[in-house]
């Protein structure tokens, strides 16, 4: 009887705790497994209740990590629903087809391409093209930019009508056809030069550029999802009701705002000899149905619809179809219609709704994999808090463990007791994480909508919830296992020496086995969620552990360096904080893991994006910059352009660049009279002539002496200081010729320019960087004075004007230049706008994910501070007992964690900054564009996050009454 009572006392509640009653259901005098588990659960729940503060922050660590998984996976499901839903609206039909693959929703790849090869051979395709070209199915579209002509074939009106008739003969009323024509392509819209790109509101006198004209049949376009104007009418109703003498036009909301246009106003379009009546306004996101359309129509937000009949006002501009859209009134026959198109018109690239579904599903699947990996990383970082928590739990309950073992509890039972507590914390924390994840989705959704330029509907994804609950619980249990090994090794004799407690180590072998088991379990989790091979998942997880180990060691060293060598400035509080920092190097390094990874990601994205923006801004806002480029495709217009620029009050300054591109370098006559041909010079080069050297010697730029390029001269003088001798003065770039001494100042170079041999004297050598950054409109790196070159009578092959014009005055100059035929004006500041849009889209989503990691890191720090203050209650009480005020104790705690934040910032931000500096040096990026100020702010952010996280728990700890602590500690 006594023995039975002793055995039952193993599970009896401790005197100092309120615990569940001992189990009564036994087998052979021993509690069965169910009774053991019941005791483990009740005992763990009771301990979590008693130590509510410690439990709360541990649950936050778990919840933050699980929230990252749930929110990101839910967002991936929402994006997939957006991409794979409403496919007919995205595709603007059941089938979209275009000649030469101009399908905005994306040409088919992979399996679709193999299927096309089975249906039609290249020979059959080419024969069909030749056959239909003779029948007038195609028209040639000629475009010119920068002096270079491009000829492009598109489907003509004859081809469209013939295909429509063929489809109706085969399928009757089953198939309807409409089309969309880009009156100007994206390049023309971007540079502001092309038919219909510039629009003038004759009622307000405002001119705006960068319009995307959409020519279609508004009565039927689009087949799916009617376009609704701001006044409630549809696009079709607005055009059908219009019966005026002038053609109608409907513009986007952004365009109407820029033009200050109202319904009934008269608009004129660049290249059109007619006037258009504004019929209505549509929301700007109306035409944004997929990623490519979202980029083209969303960049400037300026577009309009006109009827194809209005093309008559554009002179000789024919109807050239970019896309034709087919509506199949029987969904089961879509494949039949597609097959008919491939057999009869095999040159038309098609995208059916099923093709689009497969393509978008693949995109969504890749996105889901990416965000899941990010979420798992966030959860693993948050699990650092579990390790810290379980270590403190075991350390704080060492005497209790010794009592339990004195009463007969075995070491493995103690381990199971604490492992059960980790499991319960994982379940509760995961449930909390699911709720937090749903809240975080609303923040992430706004960012994703900006990237996709489409609305995303919120849904609750059961798979994300299940994954979050299972993964959160498993990861918490796995990470909580290692600290519990130490609990099983506590000796019962600790009861006799409670003030001399030394926490036992788990043992090297047990630790290695446990870590290996953690890696394997996490690899299985990653394999299950990501659907990858186990060995790949195992390698990734093992690599992550190795990387974490390297970061841990680096942080440990940094903490030691800061603690030892950071000056205290004679302040006692700083000295004490440094001493405490050195005393807890290991915990500090573990705590900072999450913060460093998040800050490194955030700093890398931010610093790289800001550096590129700064580079563009420095080029475009330089006081000598002339960001507006003007060019005429007709040489006779250059004199008129120059006169307009001289007379315009809006033009602050301008320069003219004359380029000779029909240039051949023939050789050199050295100062000593030695004559070398180009072949002889190339033979003497150690590594042969480099491609960039060949390019550098292939163009000559002629400048007036008061408008010379600002390229640094490294030898000789510039053209404005060179005396005019027998030959034309020339400044050549630094190439292998100059580096090896084959070309030097004073040599005479032989060039054939436009089939005529000319002699030039080298008066200077300039820096040359083929990867350099400049807004110089000429490709030439060789400079000559126009005053001397003009005497030869040779006309340049290309003339560009660069002007300094305020952004608000660009359209005034554009309107003045519209009188010169064949002239276009390009404001390079639009390039900055384009790059910034791309950068914003690129960094929006990763930045939010990095911020999520930063939140996780802050929670881990708060948890660590809470645990540290619990362990240091006696120390804090002693400080207050000897007279320290609460504010000073709080300051010391905040100083310690501020120093931790400094260490995290040094590693996280410093690594990103050093990476950027190394990259900028390798590609000759100016160091002055690197945002060192942003790096400093990010480092300050680390300190602020650490201090705020510490303040959440340090405030209460600093207010602890000394007598209470000393009485119970």
List keywords for this structure.
eleven-stranded mixed sheet; single chain; disordered N terminus; 28 strands; about 950 residues; globular; twelve-stranded mixed sheet; alpha+beta; 32 helices
Explain what the structure shows:
- The protein is an alpha+beta fold and 969 residues long.
- Among the domains are: 1-50, no CATH class; 190-218 and 226-312, no CATH class; 566-623 and 829-969, no CATH class; 624-828, no CATH class.
- It is built from 32 helices and 28 strands.
- Helix 16 runs antiparallel to helix 17 (462-487).
- The two termini are 37 Å apart.
Summarize the structure.
The chain is 54% helix and 16% strand.
Total number of helices: 32
Report on the biggest sheet: 12 strands, mixed
Shape: globular
The averaged pLDDT comes out at: 79
Report the helical percentage: 40-55%
Strand content: 15-25%
Uncertain residue ranges: 1-25, 101-117, 144-149, 771-775
Distance between the termini: 37 Å
Please state the CA-atom Rg, rounded to the nearest Å. 37 Å
Number of strands: 28
Structural class: alpha+beta
SSE diagram, text form:
Layout: H1 2-9, E1 26-27, E2 30-31, H2 33-50, H3 52-84, H4 87-91, E3 95-99, H5 111-119, H6 122-134, E4 138-145, E5 148-156, H7 157-171, E6 175-182, H8 186-191, E7 199-201, E8 206-208, E9 212-216, H9 235-241, E10 247-252, H10 253-259, E11 266-269, E12 275-282, H11 291-300, E13 303-307, E14 320-321, E15 323-328, H12 334-344, E16 348-352, H13 353-382, H14 384-396, H15 398-406, H16 411-452, H17 462-487, H18 508-530, H19 534-565, H20 572-583, H21 585-621, E17 628-632, H22 637-647, E18 651-660, E19 663-669, E20 675-677, H23 678-683, H24 691-696, E21 700-703, E22 713-716, E23 728-733, H25 736-739, E24 748-753, E25 756-766, E26 782-785, H26 786-789, E27 798-805, H27 810-817, E28 823-827, H28 829-871, H29 873-881, H30 886-922, H31 932-958, H32 962-968
């Amino acid at each position: 009887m006594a023995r039975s009572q002793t055995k039952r006392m193993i599970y009896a509640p401790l005197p100092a705790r309120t615990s569940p009653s001992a189990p009564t259901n036994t087998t052979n005098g021993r509690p069965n497994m169910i009774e053991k588990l019941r005791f483990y659960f009740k005992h763990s729940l009771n301990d979590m209740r008693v130590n509510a503060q410690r439990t709360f922050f541990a649950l936050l660590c778990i919840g933050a990590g699980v929230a990252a998984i749930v929110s990101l996976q839910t967002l991936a499901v929402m994006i997939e629903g957006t991409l794979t839903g409403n496919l007919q609206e995205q595709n603007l039909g059941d089938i979209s087809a275009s000649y030469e693959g101009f399908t905005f929703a994306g040409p088919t790849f992979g399996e679709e391409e193999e299927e096309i090869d089975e249906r039609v051979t290249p020979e059959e395709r080419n024969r069909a093209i030749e056959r239909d070209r003779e029948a007038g199915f195609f028209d040639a579209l000629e475009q010119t930019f920068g002096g270079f002509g491009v000829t492009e074939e598109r489907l003509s009106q004859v081809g469209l009508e013939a295909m429509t008739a063929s489809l109706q003969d085969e399928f009757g009323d089953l198939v309807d056809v409409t089309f969309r024509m880009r009156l100007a392509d994206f390049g023309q819209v971007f540079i502001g030069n092309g038919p219909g790109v510039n629009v003038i509101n004759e009622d307000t006198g405002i001119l705006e550029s960068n319009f995307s004209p959409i020519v279609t049949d508004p009565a039927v376009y689009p087949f799916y999802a009617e376009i609704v104007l701001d006044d409630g009418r549809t696009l079709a109703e607005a055009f059908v009701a219009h019966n005026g003498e002038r053609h109608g036009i409907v513009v986007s909301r952004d365009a109407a705002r820029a033009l200050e246009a109202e319904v009934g106003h008269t608009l004129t379009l660049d290249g059109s000899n007619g006037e258009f009546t504004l019929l209505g306004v549509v929301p700007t996101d109306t035409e944004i149905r997929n990623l490519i359309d979202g980029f083209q129509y969303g960049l400037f937000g300026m577009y309009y619809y006109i009827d194809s009949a209005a093309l008559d006002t554009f002179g000789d501009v024919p109807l050239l179809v970019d896309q034709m859209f087919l509506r199949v009134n029987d969904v089961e026959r879509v494949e039949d219609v597609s097959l008919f198109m491939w057999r009869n018109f095999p040159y038309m690239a098609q995208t059916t709704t099923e093709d689009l579904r497969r393509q978008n599903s693949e995109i969504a699947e890749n996105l889901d994999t990416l965000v899941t990996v990010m979420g798992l990383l966030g959860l693993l970082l948050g699990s650092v808090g579990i390790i810290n928590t379980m270590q403190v739990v075991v350390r704080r309950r060492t005497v209790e463990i010794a009592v339990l073992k004195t009463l007969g509890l075995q070491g493995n039972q103690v381990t199971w007791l604490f492992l059960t507590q980790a499991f319960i914390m994982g379940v509760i924390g995961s449930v909390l994480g699911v709720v937090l994840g749903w809240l975080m989705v609303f923040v992430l959704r706004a960012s994703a909508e900006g990237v996709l330029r489409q609305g995303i509907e919120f849904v609750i994804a059961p798979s994300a919830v299940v994954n979050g609950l299972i993964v959160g619980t498993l990861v918490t249990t796995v990470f909580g296992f290692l600290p519990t090994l130490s609990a099983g090794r506590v000796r019962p004799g600790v009861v006799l020496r409670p003030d001399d407690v030394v926490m036992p180590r788990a043992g090297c072998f047990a630790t290695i086995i446990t870590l290996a088991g953690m890696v394997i379990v996490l690899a299985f989790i990653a394999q299950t969620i990501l659907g990858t091979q186990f060995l790949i998942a195992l390698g990734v997880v093992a690599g992550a552990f190795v990387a974490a180990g390297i970061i841990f060691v680096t942080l440990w060293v940094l903490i030691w360096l800061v603690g030892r060598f950071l000056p205290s400035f004679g302040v006692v509080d700083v000295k004490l904080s440094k001493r405490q920092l050195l005393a807890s190097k290991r915990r500090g390094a573990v705590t900072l893991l999450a913060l460093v990874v998040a800050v490194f990601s955030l700093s890398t994205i931010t610093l790289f994006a800001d550096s590129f923006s700064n580079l563009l801004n420095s080029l475009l806002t330089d006081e000598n910059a002339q960001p507006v480029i003007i060019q005429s495709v007709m040489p006779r217009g250059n004199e008129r352009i120059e006169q307009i620029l001289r007379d315009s009050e809006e033009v602050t300054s301008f320069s003219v660049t004359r380029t000779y591109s029909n240039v051949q370098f023939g050789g050199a006559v050295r100062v000593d009279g030695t004559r070398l041909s180009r072949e002889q010079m190339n033979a003497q080069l150690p590594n042969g002539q480099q491609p960039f050297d060949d390019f550098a010697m292939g163009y000559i730029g002629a400048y007036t002496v008061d408008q010379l390029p600002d390229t640094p001269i490294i030898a000789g003088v510039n053209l404005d200081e060179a005396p005019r001798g027998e030959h034309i003065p020339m400044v050549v770039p630094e190439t292998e010729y100059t580096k090896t001494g084959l070309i030097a100042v004073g040599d005479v170079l032989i060039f054939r320019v436009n089939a005529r041999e000319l002699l030039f004297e080298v008066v200077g050598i300039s820096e040359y960087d083929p990867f350099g950054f400049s807004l110089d409109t000429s490709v030439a790196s060789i400079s000559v004075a126009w005053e001397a070159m003009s005497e030869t009578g040779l006309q340049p092959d290309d003339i560009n004007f660069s002007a300094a014009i305020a952004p608000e005055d660009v359209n005034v100059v554009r309107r003045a230049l519209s009188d010169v035929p064949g002239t276009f004006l390009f404001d390079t500041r639009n390039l900055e706008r384009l790059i910034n849009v791309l950068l914003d889209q690129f960094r929006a989503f990763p930045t939010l994910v990095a911020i999520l990691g930063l939140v996780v890191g802050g929670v881990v720090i708060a948890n660590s501070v809470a645990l540290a203050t619990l362990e240091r209650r006696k120390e804090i009480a002693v400080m207050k007992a000897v007279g320290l005020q609460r504010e000073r104790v709080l300051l010391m705690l905040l100083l310690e964690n501020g120093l931790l934040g400094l260490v995290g910032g040094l590693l996280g931000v410093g690594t990103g900054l050093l990476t950027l500096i190394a990259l900028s040096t390798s590609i000759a990026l100016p160091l002055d564009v690197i945002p060192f100020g942003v790096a400093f702010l990010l480092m300050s952010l680390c300190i602020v996050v650490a201090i705020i996280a510490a303040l959440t728990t340090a405030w209460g700890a600093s207010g602890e009454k000394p007598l209470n602590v000393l009485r119970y500690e």
